[in-house]
Amino acid sequence: MESMNRKAAFLCLGTMGYPMAGHLARAGCAMTVYNRSATRADAWVAEYGGTSAKTPAEAVAEVEFAFLCSGNDADVRSVVGGDTGVWAALPAGSILVDHTTGSAELACELAAEAERRGCGFLDAPVSGGQSGAENGALTIMVGGAEDVYERAKPLLDCYAKKSLRMGGAGSGQLTKMVNQICIAGLLQGLSEGFHFAQKSGLDAHRVVEVISQGAAQSWQMDNRSETMLAGKFDFGFAVDWMRKDLGIALAEAERIGAQLEVTALIDRYYAEVQEMGGGRSDTSSLITRLR
C-alpha cells in the first residue's frame, strides 16, 4: 500500500478516531497519537504500537499527515490553535485532514491558514458510524485541492469504502450537511410509518419484510427497523450529535437562503427526545415521541 512507511499523527481518539487510527497503523504507518485523556492514548499504543504525545504540537512535529476527528468547531480550534496546537509545529508540505463534522466556515478558515503555512488541508467528514470506523467501511466527503486529496487518498482508503472529493475547501462539510438532512427525514418517515403500522394492527415486522424489498428500502430501514420496533436505542449515533449537525446545516441554510422546513421541524422533534432523556440514544429514537 502507498500508505506504508508514512509518518502520521492522529489527534482525538474518540469512538471514531480510535479505530480509524488503528487502520492506519495496520497499514504500516508510523503513528503518533494524541488524546486529551492520556490514558486513552496509552491504551491505543498498547493495542497498536506507535507512540503517544502530550500535546498536538508534539504529535505532528515530524509527520507528513495529521488526522483529526473531534466533536465540534470549538474542539477543533482548541486542538489546532495556541502554543501547543497543530499549527505551532506542523511541518511545511504536510497535510492536515479534519474528519470532524463542523461548519464550512471553519473548513475555509483552516484551509487558508494551512496555505499560509505551506501545508495542505482537507475537510473530510465521514458517514458510517462506529461500525463503519471499526470495519474500515466509512464514506468520506472531501473538500480541498485535488493534488492534496490525491496525496491523502491512499491513507483515507485504509478506513473508507468510498471517498470522493466534492470541490474546494468547505465542500466536504456542505456534503455532510446534505447527508444529515437526508438521514433525519428518513428516520422521521420510518418512525411515522412503523407507528402507523402498529396502530393499524399490522405485524410491523412483516411490513418491513415486504416493503424493504421495494422502493421504501434504505440503509436506515435495513439497519434500524428491528431495534426501532424493539425500542432499543442504547447504541449508534447520538441524538445530541445529530442536533449539533442539524444546527450547523440550518445555520448554513439561513446563510445561503435554502429552505429546510422539514429539517427544522425534525430538529425540534429531536429536541423533544432530548427533553425525554434521550440525548445519548441513537438517532432512530425519534419513534419514541409517538409512543
How would you describe this structure in keywords?
globular; 291 residues; N-(1-d-carboxylethyl)-l-norvaline Dehydrogenase, domain 2
Overview of the structural elements:
The chain has 291 residues and is of the alpha/beta class. It folds into 2 domains: 7-168, NAD(P)-binding Rossmann-like Domain (Rossmann fold, 3-Layer(aba) Sandwich), CATH 3.40.50; 174-290, N-(1-d-carboxylethyl)-l-norvaline Dehydrogenase, domain 2 (Orthogonal Bundle), CATH 1.10.1040.10. It has helices spanning 17-26, 38-48, 56-60, 73-80, 104-116, 129-134, 146-156, 171-199, 204-211, 219-230, 239-256, 261-275; strands at residues 7-11, 30-34, 51-52, 65-68, 95-98, 120-123, 126-127, 138-143, 160-167. The strands form 2 sheets. It has a 6-stranded parallel sheet with strand order 3-2-1-4-5-6. Strands 7-8-9 form a 3-stranded mixed sheet.
